[in-house]
Every structure is written in structure tokens, then in C-alpha cells.
Amino acid sequence: MNEVLLRSLTPSVLGILVRRGADFAAAEDAVQDALVEAVRVWPEEQPRDPKGWLVTVAWRRFLDATRAEAARRRREDRVEEEPPPGPAPAADDTLQLYFLCAHPSLTPSSAVALTLRAVGGLTTRQIAEAYLVPEATMAQRISRAKRTVSGVRFDQPGDVATVLRVLYLVFNEGYSGDVDLAAEAIRLTRQLAAAIDHPEVSGLLALMLLHHARRAARTASDGSLVPLAEQDRGRWDTASIAEGVEILQAALVRDRLGEFQAQAAIAALHADAPAAEETDWVQIVEWYDELARLTDSPVVRLNRAVAVGEADGPRAGLAALAALDDALPRHTAVAAYLHERDGDLATAARLYAEAARKAPNLAERDHLTRQAARLNAHLSRQG
Amino acid sequence: MAKYLLLKHYRGAPAPANDVPMDKWTPEEISAHVQYMRDFADRLEETGEFVDGQALAPEGTFVRYDGPGRPPVTDGPFAETKDLIAGWMVIDVDSYERAVELAGELSAAPGAGGEPIHEWLELRPFLAEPPTITE
């Protein structure tokens, strides 16, 4: 039984039902029923046209569910209502589904859950596990989301940026349960890239591939965080990097720069350096300048200060940092790092400890505490 | 999409505005209070924001290691000032503002005279997974 094949067919089957006029929530239930049926029947005999099979079964389920009485009375008529046999229409409705699931009327967490369920074909249990909430809670989150979008007209053009933000959130969610959300986000973004010709979709896909390529090197065997400069570059996935770079280059030549392409360009420059000290920090600073122009995000300017510190020395980095609000997340951690590079170990140790207390996750807190301890041990040996 | 712990304290927090011990309430007031908490949890499940919640007994025991081959040390009796956790609820919400809003709602559970207790709740964010994209 090919679960990945089933999952990849889910969105287009759902899209076809909705385009034929099925209500979104009812269509979604019907498709889930058809998937269950496929899991039962296919191991014995896989249909020659899996998608057409799913559409037929799902449409039948939809009709049964929404017109149970009429269907009973007019069993003969149903033949006419069934889709013509043969392959499903080539026109791809998947794209509409992405827009619907990322609709601006949904909260970010609802949009993420609905996308994973309707476009990704994941079960409610899998999504609940991935987000560490009870299955009942996730089921409610999804059905609320379905109700919210059920009145949305399907013929309006959607907002690509909203869809990309949802996929970005999925990618960044880490890993728990039996579904790898980063891999799932890549799969969905690939599918989106095949359905729509948009340089920012390529930018996001390239960004994901370039980050995913470094995943094995990002954590040590004990689960602790390994900073970029200390990663074993031999463990980076070179095929994934090459693909990411190729997709990015094709997007960049179209001269419609967006923030995901700029972020991917920075990731590509990191991935391109054979050793940390060979990183092209000057070019990275230039990309951060582009990114700051596109987004004006304070986090971008914080990262830019790090890059300036590498390109022009820690004093320049500290000067760039001084212009920013010190309440920004990771501001203290960046200050600690730049002070250490500048040789002021006592200040750096104090700031690392302070940054550890403010860290948003355990892995970062442990990492920063270790940095403070390392400097403190060094200072006490000297003193 | 961030988890927060809502902590109810027996002691340690500032006194609630409607500070009448529960055994001085009428049985109906107690039922109304319990029902409010239950409805609150049910509503959060419906919005997809409920994770878990439990009530705890008022008396806890502090325990520590006392060296090899010795039984762990327990302390007691409790000093009056010691902070104790009465119960907790975990929520999963889209923003800090939403977490504050929900904590405020939970603090409005009715007490004596059917009036909100105005109890102080502690709101603590969970440490999350590190995001994949950092630089």
C-alpha cells in the first residue's frame, strides 16, 4: 500500500469534488472515506487509474452522505450523476485547495492544521501528535477551520504569500510524532511549485531544501545544538544543496526578488562554503541589506549585525547591534557572541548567561548556558 | 501555536479580590464554580486550544537525595508561606495576547456571591522546539 501515493492524490481529488459543487467539509469527509476504502481494497488490486478511482468512490460517498434519502429513492438515477468512467480531468484543482486552506480568515494554527489534513492527506491523529495536542482538540480545530472556509467562494484568486507563510510554519515546526513535518512541508511546497509558476514559491522550496540538507549536522548525538560554524560539513546532504541552489538560481534570473529568495540566497552562501572560515560574509551582508529592504523585520537586522560582525569585525557588528532594540529575541545572545570575538570575555560570559535565561527553547538555553560555563571556566583559570 | 501553562496557586500569589475560602461558599456557588471551569475547558477544546488540565491536592511533599544508601529526605510540616500549586491547565494558542485573554477569563470563575474571584493565575510559556530556519 503506497501511503505517499495516496497522500499525493488527496488534494486533487478533493479539489475536483469541490469544483463539482460539493461543500468543502462534506467533500473532505468523502475523500477521507475513499482513502480508507483504498487502503482496504488496493492491496489486492490496485486500479490502473488510482486518481480516477478515488474521485469515483469519493463522489459516490459524497452523494450518499448528502442525499441519502434521494439516493435511496432514485438508485437508478445515480448512474447519471456519477462521473464518466475513465481518467480524472487533467486540470489541476490542487492550487485552489492550497489557497482555501491558507485563507486569511483562518488563524495560523488552523490554516496549518487544515493544510496538513486537506492538502497533505494526513490523519487527524498524525497532526495532533505532531503538534502535541489531544486528538479531540485537533479534530475540533480542523472542523472549525472547515466551517470557517466552507462559505468561501472557490473562484477567487488566492494569495500566494499566505500559502507560503503556512508552509513555512509547517517546515519550522520541528519533529514529533510519526510524521516528519519538515519533509512534509517540502513535499507540499514541491507540489505547489509544480502547480504554480512563481519565483517566491521556488524561493521557499530552495530555502527549505538548503536548510533540510544541513539537518543531520545540526544536532549532536546527545541532541544538543551544533552551531553552523562547528557543523561537520561532510554530513550535509550535497544532493539536496545542489537542487536547492539550482532552483534558486532559476528563480533569481527572473528578477522578481522576494524575501524567501533572499533568505535562500543567504542559506546557499553558507552551504557553498567548504569551511566556515571560507564563508562569503561580504555577500551575505549584501543579501541581508536586500532582505531588510524587502521586509524591514527587526530579526533580519539582528541577523545582519551578526553578518557585519563576521565581515567587518566584531566592533562593526556591535555598532550595528547598538542601533537595535535590545528587547529583540536573541539580541543578548548576539551581543555575547560579538563581545567574545572582541576579546571581552567577562562581558560575554555575563551576557551568555543572561541570554540563556531568555532562550525560547531548551536546546538554545542549554547551548548558551554551556557557552557561559566555558568562558567562566576559562576566566577562573586566568584569575 | 505556542503552549502556555496556567498555574493556580493556593498561596504565594497576591490575594484574590473576592477572597472567601471555598468552604464558606454555598453548595450552589461551588457547583457554579466547578461548572465554569468545566465549560471553559470544553470551549477551549472546541476552539482547538485545549491541551490538558488537572487539579492537585493541597498538600505536597518536598523530597531530596540524602547521599548513597540513605532514604530520600522529605520535609515538613509545611510553613505557611510555602507556595503550593492548586491545579494547572495547558493551552496551545496563536499568540501571547490570546494566552493572557484566556487566563483573564479563567480568573473570572465565580466564587462567593456568584461574583468573579479575580484570582491571580501565573502564565508560563513552554520552551519550544528550536525552529529549523534560524540564520
Layout of helices and strands:
The complex is a heterodimer of chains A (383) and B (135).
Chain A: H1 3-19, H2 24-41, H3 50-66, H4 68-73, H5 78-81, H6 94-101, H7 108-119, H8 124-130, H9 135-149, H10 160-171, H11 181-195, H12 199-212, H13 215-218, H14 238-252, H15 259-272, H16 281-295, H17 298-312, H18 314-322, H19 331-341, H20 345-358, H21 362-382
Chain B: E1 2-9, H1 27-47, E2 50-55, E3 63-64, E4 73-74, E5 85-93, H2 96-107, E6 121-125
Antiparallel strand pairs in B: 1-5, 1-6, 2-5, 3-4
Pfam family, one (chain B): YCII
Protein name (chain B): YCII-related domain-containing protein
Family (chain B): Belongs to the YciI family.
- Spatial ordering of strands, largest sheet of chain B: 2-5-1-6
Secondary structure category of chain A = mainly alpha
Calculate the terminal CA-CA distance of chain A, rounded to whole Å.
66 Å
Tally of alpha and pi helices of chain A: 21
Shape estimate of chain B: flat
Helical percentage of chain B: 10-25%
Task: Tell me which oligomeric state these chains represent.
Answer: heterodimer
Give a description of the structure.
The complex is a heterodimer of chains A (383) and B (135). Helices cover 69% and strands 0% of the residues of chain A. With 135 residues, chain B is of the alpha+beta class. In chain B, a hairpin with an 8-residue loop joins strand 3 and strand 4. The radius of gyration of chain B is 18 Å and the shape is flat. Classes of the chains: A mainly alpha (383), B alpha+beta (135). Chains A and B meet through helix 7, helix 9, helix 10, helix 12 and helix 15 of A and helix 1 and strand 2 of B.
Quick recap:
The complex is a heterodimer of chains A (383) and B (135). Chain A has 383 residues and is mainly α. Chain A has helices at residues 3-19, 24-41, 50-66, 68-73, 78-81, 94-101, 108-119, 124-130, 135-149, 160-171, 181-195, 199-212, 215-218, 238-252, 259-272, 281-295, 298-312, 314-322, 331-341, 345-358, 362-382.
